[in-house]
Amino acid sequence: MIEAEDLWKLYGRVEALRGVSLRIGSGVTGLIGPNGAGKSTLIKIILGLIRPTRGRVRVFGLDPWVHGEAVRMRVGVLHEKPMFPGWATGYELLRFVARLRGIRNPEKEASEALRIVGLSDAGDRSISGYSAGMIQRLGLAQALLGRPDLIILDEPTSNLDPKGRVEMLEAISEFRRESGSSFLISTHILPELERVCEKLIILHSGRIIHQGTLRESASKYYAYSITIGSDNPMELMKHLRGLKSVRQISIRNGEVKLRTSDPKSVMDALKEISGLQTSYIREEPGILERIYLEATRKLD
Ligand SMILES: Nc1ncnc2c1ncn2[C@@H]1O[C@H](COP(=O)(O)OP(=O)(O)OP(=O)(O)O)[C@@H](O)[C@H]1O
Ligand SMILES: [Mg+2]
Fold it and tell me: Cβ distance 145 to 78 under 8 Å?
């Protein structure tokens, strides 16, 4: 879907991108990295809104700077800070965008998009009266309009309350299942991204420092964290310590805690240990956070 080769972007003397090469295929890809890493710059280049200083990018085989309109017809976008005309209603805005994008049956699509993001009841109110979270939802709605092949979301859950965040993620997952659209999602909220993303790109100071599936990444950075309760934690630790896939093993509060590149190898080893009772095994959440911290640890 997206291919980039040695992309550079300079804003005066600021090097926002420094030789980015990537391929983004179908599925849900997470784009993460610290503030100022170049995420939004990369997204704008993909959409043909700004021109790379150097390098090559193709979106659906097209150069977005030359064929920006064609690319933007096929890609739904939620920008970092969405801005909409306050005088229009949510429904009117969506219908307008649907027409602009040449979507068939704009009225029906606009209502459907409002429903998906949970804004049906507010569709007839003018946008000037929307809360920040409602504007964010409206932004997602216009990105989903017409079920584009690719949907790019820059910070989709900022401004949302806890319930809104969960709903936003559910809306994305459900939409993905139903429409088969692919997503590129940039966010700082890693536990949320972890729930939806299949692939990962980590940008840091304008460079890609890691790229892979979530599973490959978790394995590479020993990001699975496991807690085991047992009648003899010391003995258990002795057994598991020798495994190649295990790192940072310790006993805390009477539980054995470890990081591993391969949870299955730990399970298999547990089965083979005789004379030891394991009462519970827990996989801790936060895989993506551990991948991120590990990948960026020596760079900051
Ligand atoms: N229009 C611009 N003019 C000058 N510098 C810019 C411009 N846009 C971005 N930059 C600079 O380029 C770098 C990358 O910015 P970018 O917005 O792409 O980062 P980001 O990864 O999206 O960050 P954030 O997580 O804060 O959204 C930053 O140093 C930023 O200051
Ligand atoms: Mg940004």
Answer: no
Q: Which DSSP helix (H) or strand (E) runs through 2? A: strand 2-11
Where exactly does CATH 3.30.70.100 map onto the chain?
221-296
Short-list 152, 148, 194, CA closest to 169: 194
Reading the block at residue 120, the tokens are 């049906």
CATH no. for 2-217: 3.40.50.300
Q: Which fold has domain 221-296?
A: Alpha-Beta Plaits (3.30.70)
Threshold 0.85, pTM exceeds: yes
Instruction: Answer for the pair 23, 2: CB distance below 8 angstroms, yes or no.
Output: yes
Tell me the pLDDT tens digit for each residue of 268-289. Answer: 998 888 778 888 999 999 999 9
Beta carbons of 256 and 248 less than 8 angstroms apart: no
Residue with tokens 């710059």: 41
pLDDT tens-place string over residues 30-69: 999 999 999 999 999 999 999 999 999 999 999 999 999 8
d(CA 227, CA 282): 5
Query: Measured from the CA of 40, which atom of ligand 1 is nearest?
Result: 22
- Within the chain, all domains assigned CATH 3.40.50.300 are found at 2-217
Ligand 1 atom nearest to 34, measured from its CA: 25
Point out the ligand nearest to the CA of residue 78. Answer: 2
Any ligand 1 atom below 6 A from CB of 13: no
In one-letter notation, the amino acid at residue 277 is Q
224, two tokens: 């699975």
